User: What shape does this take?
Amino acid sequence: MEPDPSGASPGRVRDREATRQRILDSARELFTSEGYSQVSSRRIAAHAGVNVALINRYFGAKRGLLAEVIAEDAVFPGIVEGDPAALPRRLAEHIATRARGEGTPLQRALERSAADPDLQSVHQERVRAAIIEPLTAVLGGDDARLRASMVTAFVLGLGAVKRVEGATALAGHDPDDLVARLTRIIACCLEPGG
Amino acid sequence: MEPDPSGASPGRVRDREATRQRILDSARELFTSEGYSQVSSRRIAAHAGVNVALINRYFGAKRGLLAEVIAEDAVFPGIVEGDPAALPRRLAEHIATRARGEGTPLQRALERSAADPDLQSVHQERVRAAIIEPLTAVLGGDDARLRASMVTAFVLGLGAVKRVEGATALAGHDPDDLVARLTRIIACCLEPGG
DNA sequence: GGTATAAGTAAACAGTGTTGACTTGTCAAG
DNA sequence: CTTGACAAGTCAACACTGTTTACTTATACC
Assistant: This one.
């Protein structure tokens, strides 16, 4: 079942960086196809043809491995840049696309297990750094952070609902209607003042 | 540290229902003060002065125990009932109150560990049964479910953001402003048509 | 009083992430 | 060419987890 029958013999050359990368690759592959908590450290190590202890040696803990895998993944590739007025539309289209089941395979996989204590704290850092902060910066104004939080809430919540209702809940509608709806709501989240 | 020095002696009377309740009480108490995944089955059992195996005998698994504890907790106590037009306002006020750090102690505790696969799956069932379904029913119309999903997304997402940003992110604003904002966004989520 | 039946228990299972002591390959200096 | 140092890699154990099986024991009925 575990691949890597070749090249993983105990007598391979000792290359720190190559081994590190091999672990990282195995982790990404397994996390992507099976989720985070479903994959044990020992399985990742076996898949990489490497001893379990190396995971902790190179990444501190399983959680560190996850953090590094997630860090490679782009969340909102350059969506906050560009005309702020059209931001709701851009965001809506991006979300609608992801709602149809597309989006990074890793993201899809992690959405399934998006709840581990490990995953959560890593996710928190990422949400703040990759969504809230850029949004706040691009918005400007006293209540920029609050408005950014509202949008972020909606975006994150859609992921949660998708998990509860199944992908069809959002994807089973007319794409244009969905985009229009999302655009309207996001714009509403962004509106300044009480 | 673990209380219950009295009344938990091995020679106590054998009362299935009383024992069940004792486990349930211990679980609620520990979950509330420390979160879900931080409390092990053995600790719950010890606290209840009972053998670990009884947890699985009476609740199937630790997850079942959690489900029963959560089920006792009211999510939206009768908010969907009443005038549908004022629903956004009622919901907004409820959320704003919870945003200030109030809300069930259990809810606050579980929000911290709100990531465990167990907790998540139990939560999913609860979100559907206690939020999405009633909302869908009260809304009516072709896209009732979709509109309910939008509101649910926003509500759940606010919880997630609160976890990321800390409670102050939402609570550190003028209450009236916050309620007005939330009301507007929720109303927007509920609007029919694309 | 004896006995069936349920309540409760002890001990083990199979798994997890993690750690420290150990071995071994590699590469540079003598 | 050999030797020695240091990093890379390994092994076995630790301290847990939730869960199950086989067992003991108290209670209630005949």
